[in-house]
Write a structure and sequence with these properties.
The chain has 459 residues and is an alpha/beta fold. It is built from 20 helices and 13 strands. Strands 8-6-7-3-2-11-12-1-13 form a 9-stranded mixed beta sheet. Strands 4-5 form a two-stranded antiparallel ribbon. α4 packs parallel to α6 and α6 runs parallel beside α8.
């Protein structure tokens, strides 16, 4: 029986045993399995035993032959691998061959890799660029790679931009892990757009918010849907400015239904998440993930009653039991690891997510209802977002604070909150919910007007 243990045993017995074993494999599936499980190859491995199969009729066999030859990094396989790149009909096999050539780091491969810069397959092109960047500084390589700055593929543009035309980012006035004390555990009553004007660049670690839904509540009335989107874009562009490099913005929203005015008119459903998304990416937010908040069907308004009775086609209306948590990151050439390294190891260790956690992008969380607010964040939703996307001691912003649940969760998780709320009634609710100073070991909460906050920023 063909097993991984058998493959390893054959491999350790030398090249002759390996060649004999491969010759004895009579069907394609067995050969594929054997090649796939070769694993680490010893320095004296003779790849010539694989060459007879480099033109095998099975693309899977060819793929694993190429991958194993690539592990060897031996320039004597440049010719057969180059031939595969030029002639093979399977894109995955070609991509692996290009990757194998790149891993050799041999100048003998430069011309072959340069010839692939016009390949129509972006993944082939990306692998070729990866191999050529080893020779960055070579005039011919640099000249041709720079010409890809305007390539139609956005991923290729991004790589070349980072390597040859990096954007100059104004160095922050603060260390990445730090921010101003006047932003810690502060709630400001006023228009968020005016409040954020007083907040310095690069001072917020995480934003988590749920904006008012378009004309669905008394506190969210706008003259038009276009005006509503323009308002959100204005707010989130300001959020982008105050967010630290490479940090996260999590937006909770969902499509909204505006009821019909009479039976002679239809209701209107507005796809808020999908309409706001392109505006966010244009202003410099990079889309990372979509998380679906799944609520019990019993907790949502029933739209299905009529259809349940008549069952007529075209009239089906499902009950909306989901909302979106759209996860964005402020664009940066720096990787996540850079953000993490900016913190002391003690903080990183204390901020780790322990125990069980949701591994999928579907979060099953019951909604929360309150007498003093019609759209309340569940604390569990806030807990997950804050623990997954911030460190202990960070400042978490909610520009539409509502009843202040983000602040409650942030404080419990040893983060600081910075909340803004325009409605005086809800500002007072937040003060009630967060006004117990005994809950704070330091940075006691402050509840201020816009003018008072502006004065704080100048102290």
């Amino acid at each position: 029986m063909l097993t991984k243990d058998y493959v390893n045993e054959v491999k350790t017995n030398g090249n002759s045993a390996l060649a004999k074993a491969i010759e004895g494999l009579k069907n394609t599936s067995s050969l594929s399995y054997f090649l796939e499980n070769l694993g680490f190859l010893p320095n004296d491995f003779d790849g010539s035993v694989l060459l007879p199969f480099i033109s095998h009729e099975s693309s899977n066999v060819r793929f694993w032959v190429v991958k194993n030859l690539g592990k060897l990094g031996d320039i004597k396989y440049i010719e057969p691998l180059s031939k595969i790149v030029k002639e093979d009909t399977d894109s995955m096999v070609r991509r692996e061959a290009v990757s194998s050539l790149g891993r050799m780091r041999s100048a003998k491969n430069i011309q072959t890799l340069l010839s692939l810069l016009t390949d129509p397959d972006p993944k082939i092109l990306a692998q070729a660029i990866r191999g050529l960047l080893v020779f960055k500084g070579n005039t011919a390589v640099d000249t041709q790679l720079k010409q890809l700055a305007n390539h139609p593929n956005e991923f290729i543009q991004q790589v070349i931009q980072k390597e040859y035309f990096p954007k100059k980012i104004k160095s922050s006035h603060l260390p990445h892990a730090q921010t101003y004390d006047y932003l810690k555990n502060v709630v400001v009553n006023g228009d968020v757009r005016e409040i954020l004007q007083a907040v310095p660049d690069d001072s917020i670690h995480l934003t988590f918010t749920s904006p008012p839904y378009y004309n669905a509540r008394d506190y969210s009335v706008y003259p038009s849907y276009k005006a509503y989107l323009h308002f959100l874009a204005d707010v989130f562009e300001k959020v982008h400015r105050v967010t630290k490099e490479g940090r996260f913005f999590v937006l909770n929203t969902s499509p909204i239904i505006i009821p019909r005015v009479s039976r002679q008119h239809s209701s209107k459903r507005y796809p808020i998440p999908f309409d706001i998304h392109p505006l966010l990416t244009e202003m410099g937010w990079e889309f990372i993930d979509d998380i679906v908040w799944l609520k019990p069907e019993a907790s949502v308004k029933n739209r299905n009653a009529g259809f349940l009775q008549h069952r007529k086609p075209l009239a089906y209306k499902p009950n909306p039991v989901t909302e979106y948590l759209m996860v964005y990151r402020k664009k940066s050439d720096k990787l996540i690891d850079w953000n993490i390294r900016e913190y002391e190891w003690k903080i990183v260790k204390e901020s780790k997510i322990l125990g069980n956690y949701e591994t999928s992008n579907v979060w099953r969380i019951d909604p929360t209802f309150a007498k003093n607010h019609s759209a309340v964040f569940p604390v569990e939703l806030c807990n997950r977002v804050i623990t997954f996307y911030s460190f202990r001691g960070d400042v978490v912003l909610d520009p539409f604070a509502g009843s202040g649940t983000v602040g409650i969760a942030a404080n419990a998780l040893e983060r600081h909150f910075f909340l803004t709320e325009k409605d005086e009634k809800y500002f007072q609710v937040i003060e009630t919910n967060l006004g117990n100073k005994s809950l704070f070991s330091k940075n006691e909460p402050r509840f201020v007007t816009l003018n008072e906050f502006t004065l704080l920023t100048k102290i």
